[in-house]
Every structure is written in structure tokens, then in C-alpha cells.
Amino acid sequence: PAKKKDIRDYNDADMARLLEQWEKDDDIEEGDLPEHKRPPAPIDFSKIDPGKPESILKLTKKGKTLMMFVTVSGNPTEKETEEITSLWQGSLFNANYDVQRFIVGSNRAIFMLRDGGYAWEIKDFLISQERCADVTLEGQVYPGKGAEESEKVKNKTKPEKVKKKKDVDKKSSSTKEDNRATKQREDL
């Protein structure tokens, strides 16, 4: 049993415990909860197109905060980057997208979205802009309209090279020779 303390003798820890006790029984709406405490939105698997992996990401990111990096083409100053990305943010705002913008370099900005389900629509808008060099979303780099041709080729995913059969045979035989456990087992 806790000791009864005079309210005037409460310190910060006591006040925090008291607040937790009061809030324990309160009915807090889901929208007021922090994002990490909200239950995930149910995923409707009938809307998933197996041919498009982006459709899965759209549904899993719905209702969650998401950030994307945007690079402005050319060699803009930080002020030019501020002006250009401000125009993009204004256009997105007029299209009812809730986007916050943070400048992180002379030619880079972060666009933070409250609802990640709209990220791919916003990405499509941004890469169609003249001064957009690229957009990075979920680790994937998408070249923009303003990207140089060499950057467009560099950013595309490259197909894996087919290894020659001789190289594969050499590697497998060398690993057998170098593996001590294999030699001991063969000796036994």
C-alpha cells in the first residue's frame, strides 16, 4: 500500500503517476492516440494487384507518417531550392495533400506526409516537374524529369548478370578445400 502524501509534498514523479492513473480509465479516441499506439488499419487484400508491388506498399503505409527525399536539378542555391519546393508544396496543398517540407541541403528537401498511402501519387507529381532530379521513396530512387540522362540510366535497377558455369564450379571447389570442418569430417 502506498503512503498517503499531502498534495503539497508531491514531486514531478508523483504528479506523473497521478496523471497516469487518471488517464488509465479515460476513453481516448483513436485519432488522438500517438501513431505508434494506434491499431493498424485493416488491409483489403482484394485491392492488391500482384503485378504491382507498389499497391502493397500503398496499403501498408496508409495512415502512417512517411518521408520522401526530393532533389532539385541543376546547382540551385538553398534559397532557390526553398522557392522551387515551396511551389511544389503549394500545388500539392491545392490538390488536398497534407505535406510538410524541410530543406536539408542546397539541392535537397524532405517532404513529410501524414498519410503514406498518397506517397506514390505525390511521387508521380514530383517526378513530372521540370526541376526535379529525383525522388527517393522507401529506399527506391525514381529519376525525375529534370535528371540528366546519365543519372536516369544510373538510377534504374540493373538486371543481375548471369554467372558463368566455370566461375561457379571454381568457387564451389575452393570452398570445399578451405573449409576445415569439411576436411575433418572427410578424415573421420
From TrEMBL:
Belongs to the MESD family. Residues 23-32 have a biased composition (Acidic residues). Gene3D superfamilies: 3.30.70.260, 6.10.250.640. Residues 23-45, 143-188 are annotated as: Disordered. Keywords: Chaperone, Endoplasmic reticulum, Signal, Wnt signaling pathway. Its main location: endoplasmic reticulum. GO terms for cellular component: endoplasmic reticulum. This is LRP chaperone MESD. GO terms for molecular function: low-density lipoprotein particle receptor binding.
